[in-house]
């Protein structure tokens, strides 16, 4: 059985050098082809370099850009299945969830992930990756805590992004209790976590936060 590889990033791209190197290696470096799934909006072409810059330095030369809200689904799925790495971008979390979770795109991502193809989520992409997609009030137009179904790439946990910037400690604790999971990860901007077979294995950044079984702690990688 192939190992599974999940990268969850707390803010906007790019990757840090440590996790970028690891993602590139797992995506086969110069032999790799990485898909970037994103919400198309004005100026998106110029923004893609933020996703690709570090990976390009680490050996990835081929990228395919797949706007989930405008691309033909048949073409998108055909292109996605040829890739050796997948990135889910940031932006409107509710839209990402609606376009990906419980859709052919989501099923394809999960199938490829289970086959050992590395997956990464930045901000919104990180929030939709677990079994429970928890969107805080600051990140949705209803201004309330949303508990929705996620992709299910990782289970028995919840994720908070922009953790310190959005002052998410209370929301993370509430999310753990409401979703009835064992652990919550708070990820700051410019921070990243790497899970191998759903176990936290590597980190990048000055700090990250874990709340587990009623105990909130500051972790130094």
Task: Write structural notes for this entry.
30% of the residues lie in helices and 28% in strands. By secondary structure, the chain is α/β, with parallel strands linked by helices. It has a single domain, classed as Rossmann fold. Strand 8, helix 7 and strand 9 form a beta-alpha-beta unit. Helix 3 (73-80) runs parallel beside helix 5.
Total domains = 1
Could you say what the CATH architecture is?
3-Layer(aba) Sandwich
As residue ranges, the low-confidence spans are none
Helix and strand content put the structural class at: alpha/beta
Number of strands: 13
Structure summary:
The chain is of the alpha/beta class.
Descriptive tags:
alpha/beta, Rossmann fold, 7-stranded mixed sheet, 4-stranded mixed sheet, 30% helix, globular
How is the topology of this model organized?
Elements: E1 5-9, H1 17-26, E2 33-38, H2 44-57, E3 62-67, H3 73-80, E4 85-88, H4 93-100, H5 104-114, E5 119-122, H6 124-127, E6 132-135, E7 146-149, E8 157-160, H7 169-179, E9 183-186, E10 192-196, E11 199-204, E12 208-212, E13 215-219
Parallel strand pairs: 1-5, 2-3, 2-4, 4-5, 8-9
Antiparallel strand pairs: 1-10, 6-7, 9-12, 10-11, 12-13
Helix pairs in contact: 3-5
